[in-house]
Amino acid sequence: MNMEKMDKILDIGIALTAEKDIRVLLKKIIDSAMEITGCDAGTLYLKKDDHLFFTIMANHTLGTYRGGKGEVIDLPPVPIDREHISSLALLEDRIISIDDAYDTSLDKVYSGPRAYDENLGYHTSSVLVVPMKNPEGEQIGVLQLINALNEEGQPVPFSKESRRVMASLASQAAVAIQNVRYTKQIRDLFDSYVQTSIGAIGKLTPFNENHTRNMADYGRRFLDWLNRKAEKENRKLPYEKERYDELITAIWLHDLGKLVTPVDIMNKNTRLWPLQKKEIEHRMKEFRLKARIMELEGKITKEEREAIERNCEELLAYVGIADVKILDDRKQKLEKFAGWTFTDADGKTYPYLQEDELHQLSVAYRTLTDEEFKIMHDHVVKTEELLAGMAFPRDMSHVKTWAAMHHELLNGRGYPKGLKGEEIPEEVRILTILDIFEALTAADREYKKPKTPQEAVAHLHKIAGFGEVDERLVALFEESRCWEA
């Protein structure tokens, strides 16, 4: 073996152990095996239960490459028994090399390649079947290579050197696949923990029951669309696995701080607190009763009593509406009610509405006052504090930063830190767009009517014009239509 080939094998081994994307890893395995042995075709099987599943199939002569992007190959799996050459190699943990697949002296178990030829119009000469097992002896899968080629491109038997090299490669491949699987198991455990935590927020507040889940769905579709767009334009994928997973995790965790936000504020879907509304109703009832007593005692006229009752009825009717709806005349009406007072028989004067009630009812476009909204704002700070206590691995190192920045705006008017422009990375800009879009279109907010996707996108364009969000990303988001399943 020359030095150049040895260096290539070493490079392949390093590449396999470094790869974390299972689809890319499997493609590297079959491509490397075919390149090292100089063969024309190859199949990578992975073991699941008691079958070998076709995972990647490549054939230069036929010009086919299936499974390289993770798509399922629609061929029946091979039972792990002694009647199939690929299964036999795995069961007996040995490399099987056939110089001529059409040698009549071969047992029936070696007839699989001939059946392959019959189905595809191909001619198999040499075959090399290599089992993949990890150091613990666990069966991972099988590499099956077909038709080693000489310099003239003619099929020849696989060399002894190829067999030795493939034994080493198969061992490295098995370890690499197992490591990726272990990593995925850990990641799945982490994801399930994250989603359980977010589900707990959904139990606390019905208004966020689906918010984060919808955002994650939209986010995945948008990132997939951005990757497909780049692929069509022969550009590097903007969101390869590591960056993709990191952003999706940040989306899942962006509202984690709501776990420690007061539930009554998160669930406040009216301007008045329930106790305040009851106090107003009780006060109006008391005013009416006192007015009737005062009329009976001759201290006020019938007309004065009726005027007091009309005031009480008008105020209660308006409060019932103003408590939950956006009203154009809110300021004028509340100013009028603020001047109303009731004087009892002892000459003591009471306001129809208390100062704190007027303050709550004066909120125009939401149900929270500025003070309550500040408490809600703090959920971002709480998110950062909670995530700071988590030990994220290197490939998740940006999660805590991105998740805690989703209310920052490009013009510096966001919170909690007032970051602006280049201080806000693209990932956070996407997260912010998803957050705003989902909040506007959410159908589970009792205090507001949901906007259509078109209305929500129009709003995003509008605030992009104010410099709040990224206009380029809003345009791409609109083009992707990622809210459509």
Structural class: alpha+beta
Count of folded domains? 3
CATH architecture of the largest domain: 2-Layer Sandwich
- Cα-atom radius of gyration: 35 Å
Strand content: 5-15%
CATH superfamily of the largest domain: GAF domain
CATH class of the largest domain: Alpha Beta
CATH topology name of the largest domain, in short, is Beta-Lactamase
Distance between the termini: 54 Å
> pLDDT under 50 segments (min length 5)?
none
Work out the oligomeric state of the chains in this entry. Answer: single chain
Helix proportion of residues, in percent? 40-55%
Main pleated sheet: 8 strands, antiparallel
- The whole-number mean of residue pLDDT values reads 90
Total DSSP helices: 17
- Rough shape? elongated
Order of helices and strands, N to C?
A: HHEEEEHEHEEEHHHHHHHEEHHHHHH
Number of strands: 10
Fold topology:
Elements: H1 3-18, H2 22-37, E1 39-48, E2 51-59, E3 64-66, E4 78-79, H3 85-91, E5 96-98, H4 112-120, E6 127-133, E7 139-149, E8 155-156, H5 160-204, H6 211-232, H7 241-253, H8 263-266, H9 274-296, H10 302-322, H11 330-338, E9 341-343, E10 349-351, H12 355-361, H13 370-388, H14 399-403, H15 426-441, H16 453-465, H17 471-480
